[in-house]
Amino acid sequence: MFDLRDGYATIPACNMDPLLKLRSKIHGLICQEFGIEVGDIEISLNEFHKHITSYSLGEFNKKRVGLIQRISAEVDASNLVFSAFENSITKILGPDILAQKGCNLVLQPPLDPNPSELHRDTPANSPYELVVWVPLVNAYATKAMYILTAEDTKKAFDFLEKSPMEWDGFEKKCKNLSSIGTVEFGNALIFNASLLHGSEINNETETRVSLNIRYKNLFSPSGFKNQLQFFKPIRISDFARIGSEVEMRDLLK
């Protein structure tokens, strides 16, 4: 059981097999893209930074972009993540579920100067989307991410309206309100897309490797994004399918 009154929760996988398959596939592509000899997956991912010391920051970022493109094209990450956390996702969103087509991979060696800055995914994305953040290694301290509760997200914006400030001041205020937890591999951090969140520079001795995918109910608003362009169906109920087939019968001929 989990409680989403704060807008987020850490949940265990109900099925580890698809999660292990996902990690194995991504590890294989990382090794191919960066020319790393395949070895123990957990050690290899945690110690990824030891294999890229010859890359400049620009070269590394170019490789990282190419890797993300390959994962989106070659790995059905949204289905694998859904299968791993299906019970929790359907409990929140119901039986008619769409998933983000692409996959957002985070690959940040220690002291990488490009953490994910404080942000929230709305209003571009729908406030009714569920973000599923999946670490492929154990995430803790600065190797994890920080997030504000729904109440503290509202407090942060109320504070900004009453006391306009520079970005650094607002970011500091938000970080003071935020929480950082440990999310071990085999678990996911799930949260509402409207919550403020981000990550610090990774000051640990291991590489941060994680991915995030957004899910939404078929019938919920889509924010500013074209639902057909950014999402694909993962699970559609018989009831919704019948209605679609009847209403779209002329298009299906």
Describe the secondary structure blueprint for this structure.
Layout: E1 8-12, H1 16-34, H2 41-46, H3 57-74, H4 77-84, H5 86-93, E2 97-100, E3 104-108, E4 130-135, E5 146-147, H6 150-162, H7 167-177, E6 179-180, E7 187-192, E8 197-198, E9 208-217, H8 227-230, E10 231-235, H9 238-247, H10 249-252
Antiparallel strand pairs: 1-7, 2-9, 2-10, 3-9, 4-7, 4-9, 5-6, 5-8
Helix pairs in contact: 1-3, 1-4, 6-7
- Can you name the CATH architecture? Sandwich
How many separate domains make up the residues? 1
**Into which percentage range does the β-strand content fall?**
15-25%
The major pleated sheet works out as: 7 strands, antiparallel
Reading off the top of the CATH hierarchy, the class is best stated as Mainly Beta
Radius of gyration: 19 Å
Give the helix tally: 10
Give the end-to-end Cα distance, rounded to a whole number of Å: 45 Å
pLDDT average, as an integer? 92
Weakly predicted, low-confidence segments? none
